[in-house]
């Protein structure tokens, strides 16, 4: 089974309908998952990435704020870089168990150079502003998206946008960039207007927390993962859902359910 791909807006980038989220490959502090976990070792991470690739997943999501995730991907994706669409972020840092934020153009440029080094790549496919919730202030006053537009013009990144947290901010980000990452799951559809806007205007949409960070999978009754994917992929504005899993059985099951959902 090979997962189908969809366009990420008008960028020309094609992404598998499921992407692999890598918080759990790099960080085990300050996370809100329902169960504790151990960060996979290199052999386990290598196998997980190979499995994802075999299932047709070509999109991998990381961030400077995900602990050692970027550095690990730099090592693990060596020799297969051209087979992946890498999405990383700017603006959030995570050190000593604490998040801090810097959305200035200077920090944005520094962060991209650091991500290029850590990821051992010449170009990053997508970079999103890792919002702290003040989406509109970041966009209107801090110049982060403008700095990303310049980095795109310089050929350091292929596409950019924002991982937003508000409807107003998501709409504004979509207007001024290539696309957004928004939350949509069985417990929360507040950001749906942003996805509708993106569909109407040719912007890409990545879904984060599609399984509510794992919490929807604990609900009894009808298979919540299947139900989630049916809801998400019925919307043609959704480019891909980034699911954070380190469990190979979950990865296979999720891919099967996504493929079934998209067939209708
Ligand atoms: P998620 O994908 O909704 O949920 C991940 C959790 O669900 C993991 O604990 C995983 O555990 C569990 N899970 C996955 N498939 C399952 C299945 N079939 N059955 C039972 N449990 C299952 O949430 P997320 O990790 O918070 O978000 C996904 C990704 O989006 C992140 O990795 C990150 O890349 C991105 N993200 C971005 C932002 C931002 O930009 N602000 C914020 C949050 C997330 P197992 O490992 O055991 O499968």
Structure explained in plain terms:
The protein contains 10 helices and 12 strands. With 264 residues, the chain is an alpha/beta fold. 39% of the residues lie in helices and 21% in strands. The model has no long low-confidence stretch (mean pLDDT 97). The protein has an 8-stranded parallel beta barrel, surrounded by 5 helices. It has a single domain, classed as TIM Barrel (Alpha-Beta Barrel). The two termini are 16 Å apart. The structure holds NADP nicotinamide-adenine-dinucleotide phosphate. NADP nicotinamide-adenine-dinucleotide phosphate (NAP) binds next to α1, β12 and α10.
Number of distinct helices: 10
- Range of strand content: 15-25%
CATH architecture: Alpha-Beta Barrel
Query: N- to C-terminal separation?
Result: 16 Å
Q: Identify the overall geometry.
A: globular
**CATH topology, which one?**
TIM Barrel
Poorly predicted runs: none
Largest beta-sheet characterization? 8 strands, parallel, barrel
Number of strands: 12
Order of secondary-structure elements: EEEHHEHEEEHEHHEHEHEHEH
Write a short abstract of this structure.
This protein has helices spanning 23-26, 42-54, 69-76, 105-118, 135-142, 144-153, 167-176, 192-201, 224-234, 248-263, and strands at 5-7, 14-16, 18-21, 59-61, 85-90, 92-95, 98-101, 124-130, 157-163, 179-183, 204-208, 240-243. With 264 residues, it is α/β, with parallel strands linked by helices.
Relevant terms:
single chain, 264 residues, alpha/beta, TIM Barrel, eight-stranded parallel barrel, binds NADP nicotinamide-adenine-dinucleotide phosphate
